[in-house]
Amino acid sequence: MAPRLSQRWQFSLVYVLVAAVILSLLQSWLLAPRTVELPMSKFLELLRAGQIEKVALTEREIRGVAKPGALPAPPSAPGDRLRQMLGSDHDLRVFTVTRIPGLDEQFLVADLQKAQVEFAGRIETTFWKDLLFGWIIPLAVMIGIWMFLMRRVGGGPTQALSFGRSKHKIYDRKELKTTFADVAGVDEAKAELVEVVDFLKNPKKYQRLGGRLPKGVLLVGPPGTGKTLLARAVAGEADVPFFTLSGSEFVEMFVGVGASRVRDLFEQAKDKAPCIVFIDELDAIGKSRAGSTGFVGGHDEREQTLNQLLAEMDGFDSSKGVIIMAATNRPEVLDQALLRPGRFDRQIVVDKPDVRGREAILRLHARNVVLGPNVELGVIAARTPGFAGADLANIVNEAALLAARKDKNAVDMSDFEEAIDRVVAGLEKKSRVLSDKERDIVAHHEMGHAFVATSVAHADPVHKVTIIPRGIAALGMTYQLPTEDRFLMTRSELEDRIAVLLGGRVAEELVYGEVSTGAHNDLERATDLARLMVMKYGMSDRVGLATYGERTPQFLKGAMGWPGERDFSEDTARAIDAEVREMLERLHDRVRGILTTKKAALMAGAAELKQVETLEGERLRRVLTADGADRAPATGSQEAGR
Question: Which of 277, 335, 273 is nearest to 310 (CA)?
Answer without folding.
Answer: 335
